[in-house]
Amino acid sequence: MNNYHLKHSFVLLWFILLVILAPRSFCMDPAKVLFEDATRESNQNIVVDKLREIVEKYPESPLAIESLYIIAEQEYLKEDYAQAYREFQTLIEKFRRNKYSSLAWYRRASCLFAVCEYDEAIKEFRQSISLNPWGEQCSLAKIGIADAYFAKNDYHRALREYKSISGGPFHQYILYKITLCHQNLHNEREFKMSKEELIKKYPLSVESMLIANATELNLATDESLKVPLEAVWTIQVGSFTREENARNLSATLRKKGYISWIQRVKIGEGFFYRVYLGKFKTEEEVKRKAEEVNRKEDLPTRIVELK
């Protein structure tokens, strides 16, 4: 072998060794390196920082979409619905018509539903369906629309929406909600028929157990959620200049089983968002509950007489 070929053989060998022994960062996409580092990280704050770095530094990488979706989903699972909504909004605006678009709209709608923004939730559930009418979340979005009408006490519209959904894996839940709609509308005949169908088809389901002892005058829904018509007292547990803070507190209380709602009050040139808890028939009852809430939830309480 002459010197020329020997020289180039050594160059080729050196290049092969360099490729084999080179660090990952030399051989791999830097976005992929960051993403893999994030998947091995146990500290969630560091995970989010690495994922955000991918989004900011490598927006053209497919992993930027994945990263932003993971960030938004983490906020949603933590039940920080305000932050989750913002993250999904960024995903929709920054990466239009990406593979998560329909799911992002569904999640945004779910965030709105969680804080009782039912009208806006309905719009965004519909947007999710329009983007991918055959997607896995399509049926869930349709259920979300029906549930929103039900939560608004619009049982006629809720009934139509539930009936428009094909059964599938959610049939027992849909049938249960149809039964409750008939119950709230006092459609005695339809109520009995759908109740019997539910128990017959799904005898061991939670829905059947919930509805089994219900009659038209004995609603199957949680009695603690029924506000006495003669209630005259409530408890104020917060007052905020930012509506978002009020909604977060109210949503947290509802998840703990309390009745809670928000009232916007104009004071001077601005607005305050007051958070209330419960409705009570007697002053004695509301005082007892206020002490309990103050002790258990560490919240300031102010007893208010309803007008």
TrEMBL record:
An annotated GO cellular component of this protein is:
cell septum
Q: Which InterPro entries match?
A: Cell_div_SPOR-domain, SecYEG/CpoB_TPR, SPOR-like_dom, SPOR-like_sf, TPR-like_helical_dom_sf, TPR_rpt
SMART domains the record matches: TPR (SM00028)
GO molecular function, a single term: peptidoglycan binding
GO annotation, biological process: cytokinetic process
Regions crossing the membrane: none
Name the record gives this protein: SPOR domain-containing protein
Start and end residues of the TPR repeats are 102-135
Q: Which domain of life is it from?
A: Bacteria
Alphabetically list the UniProt keywords: TPR repeat
The record lists the organism as Candidatus Desantisbacteria bacterium CG1_02_38_46
**Residue ranges of every copy of the SPOR domain listed in the record:** 227-306
